[in-house]
Design brief:
By secondary structure, this protein is of the alpha/beta class. It has one domain (about 30-180): Glutaredoxin (3-Layer(aba) Sandwich). Helices cover about 35% and strands about 15% of the residues. It has five helices and seven strands; from the N terminus they run αβββαβαβαββα. The N and C termini lie far apart (about 60 Å).
Amino acid sequence: MKIYKIFFSLFLFFCLSQESFANISSKNAYQFSFNGIDGKKIDLSDYRGKLILVVNTASKCGFTPQYKGLQSLYEKYKSRGLVIIGVPSNDFGNQEFGELQQVKDFVHKEFHVTFLLTQVSKIKGENAHPFYLWANNEAGFFASPKWNFHKYLIDKNGNFITWFSSATDPQSKEVIAAIEKNL
């Protein structure tokens, strides 16, 4: 009897999860917003007609030097319509500062970041930010973030285009080609 309850519970969880994901995937990225690191709302619908690169970040990660490459990308392509949004997260190795001001001070002092940053957000699991639930569903399980500095590219109409792993440098030919193709 106990095994039956476990299987039934798993079945219900799977069905409800699939229904939730179906509702999320029927829309595009413009339905989402983030709380900015400065307290202002970052509404993705404000960036209609622009290419959006969303990157989960962490200040104390081995990939943290990618901030430099992200800033270079932003400086090179912002006039052509590229928006970069860094989403600090503690989901992988607890590698983000505990205070928002620490995050802000660090990225500005060390990397001179001028692209958008959000408040520290969950990007994995049931309590992930809704954007990440949507993007993970669009990209598929194997394309969901496995570590910090995972990148999602959203087209000018708010649709998911592609993803890049944490190990993919923002200055790589793959990232640059995808940006140039979609600008």
